[in-house]
């Protein structure tokens, strides 16, 4: 059940503070709750899964649950000094690093060197959360420093690595961690969340618009709440008005991949697809895969006939599973793109 706290935008006031307030990922919630209660949570965790599916949120909930003055649990009080410091992002016990920006070896070493000392504010545990943890990989030496630390993690320290590209970390790093794979939320779950928020806020909502937002948000509650906020503010409770809000706010990476998909459909040629791919190569493969899949789901919904629908359905089959458990995701993507062009050629 969601809870409203404080003031600000919808994403802030409905941010979960207890595991029971998280929507979706039910199995993970059960396992982590139990591990916290039984004091069996592994000290090195690797959270994988697509962007926006709640990895970092969950990492923060663990930090709260470990340090709440009321006792270790998945249901921290969210009111004690420790909880409030963590929620306000100014606790000495929780170190959050965005490895995409500060993953250099000097910063990483500094974070790790500080961990063995006891927390300053009287908290029980230090929790270091590395977002975009795959950026620690490569030649910078950051991953090696981390690896050394993971060999002998102090009892009062928990390390949580969050990434949508775990294959970019060394196998030995992954092996030292307990891996938890998060999934995207179902559209229905996102829709239920939106409906609860609307009821709390007293919005004069329309359920079909909430369903539309949920589909467009691609299983990312943060995106869905962002759209809802704007639609409610502008009272855009028609599909046309809502689509204007959503199109304006859509992720720039997705726009580029959608253009790429349109080109694939137009050209139906593998060589030109490969050429076009080189222009979007900087976008993470998992984002490309999800955007391609989402694009063809849209095509399927608008298919003119059964034959077309069958083709789009085959493309969705190829792109609906994450590639990141495969050691060479780019090879799988290339192969998928080849198959997509072949499937599309069949109309000619
Ligand atoms: Zn507390």
UniProtKB/TrEMBL annotation:
<dbReference type="InterPro" id="IPR003593">
    <property type="entry name" value="AAA+_ATPase"/>
</dbReference>
<dbReference type="InterPro" id="IPR050238">
    <property type="entry name" value="DNA_Rep/Repair_Clamp_Loader"/>
</dbReference>
<dbReference type="Pfam" id="PF13177">
    <property type="entry name" value="DNA_pol3_delta2"/>
</dbReference>
<protein>
    <recommendedName>
        <fullName>AAA+ ATPase domain-containing protein</fullName>
    </recommendedName>
</protein>
<feature type="domain" description="AAA+ ATPase">
    <location>
        <begin position="41"/>
        <end position="186"/>
    </location>
</feature>
<dbReference type="GO" id="GO:0006261">
    <property type="term" value="P:DNA-templated DNA replication"/>
</dbReference>
<dbReference type="InterPro" id="IPR027417">
    <property type="entry name" value="P-loop_NTPase"/>
</dbReference>
